[in-house]
Amino acid sequence: MDLLRHLHYFVTVAEERHFGRAAERLHMAQPPLSQQIRRLEAELGVTLFERTTRRVDLTAAGTAYLARAREILAQVGTAADEARQVAAGVVGRLAIGCVGSATYSLLPDLSRRLADELPGVDFAFRGEMLVADQVDALRDGGIDLALLRPPVADGSLSVTPLREERLVVAVPATHRLARRRWLRVGDLADADLIVHSAGRRSAMYGVVRTLFTEAGLTPRIRHEVGETSTLITLVAGGLGVAVVPEPVRALALAGVDYVPLARPAPTVELAVAHRAERTEPHLLRTLEVLRELVSG
Fold first, then answer.
1. Under CATH, which number does the domain 92-162+269-295 receive?
2. What pTM did the predictor assign?
3. Least CB-packed of 96, 141, 236, 266 within 10 Å?
4. Residue 86 confidence (pLDDT) above 90
C-alpha cells in the first residue's frame, strides 16, 4: 500500500507541476508531500523531478516512470472494480442443466431474467438432461446448477425444492382419450405408452412405473426415448400416449392434446441442485433469481 500511495503522490505532483497545488489536491501539507517524493526517489535511486522555486519538471526518468505509474494505478483500479463485482455476484461463468419439462417451461423466462439482472455473468444452458446425467455433470464440473427431479442420493449436493408439478397425459389429438375432460390411471391400461428411457436412468420412467404399480396395473410400454421433445413428437405421430409433468404443455406441438389426471392428481417435484461447497456470489445470485421466478 505504501508503494501505491507513493505512486499516487508522484502522479499528482507530475500533473500539477507544483508541490503546493499537488498538496492542496491531496488534502495534505506541502512538506510531508515533498518528503514522500524524496523517499520515493531514494528508493528508486533516480531523480524524478527537477525543482525550482516556482515549479517542478519531470526528468527523463520521471517521464518514463509516470507512464508506468499511471498504468499500475489504472490496473489496480480495474482489479478493485472486478473484485467488487465478483463479491456482488454480478460477474462470473455458470452452466445450468435442465430436465426436459424445465427446458421448455422455465428456461426461456429464466434465461431472459438472468440476462436482464446479471448481464455480467456468462451463462451456458444444457437442456433435455436426465437426472443421472445432471448429477454426474455436477460432480465433474460440467454444470454448476441443475434443475432436476428428486430424490438425489448424493450427500455432496445441496438440493432445494422449487415446486410441485401435476402430471397430465399427452395424447394424440385423434385418440379416443383426447375427448376426455380428465383421466384415471386405469383409463391407460390398454393404451400404448411412450416413456423416458429406463436404460438412461430417467426419473420420469420410475414415476410412471410407480403410478401404474400403485393402480395395480402393468404399463404397456411401446417406446422408450431419451428426450421430452422426442417423446411428444411420437405422441403427435399417433404412436402412443405419455404421462408427463404439466409444464410440458409449453412444448406446444400440433396433434397433441394434454388431459389432466383425476384429482387428487399425482405430482412430481422440481428442485435445483449444486455442489454443497459452492458458495460463489454469482451462483447464489442466480439461485435468488430462480426462486423469485418460480414463486412469482
1. 3.40.190.10
2. 0.69
3. 141
4. no
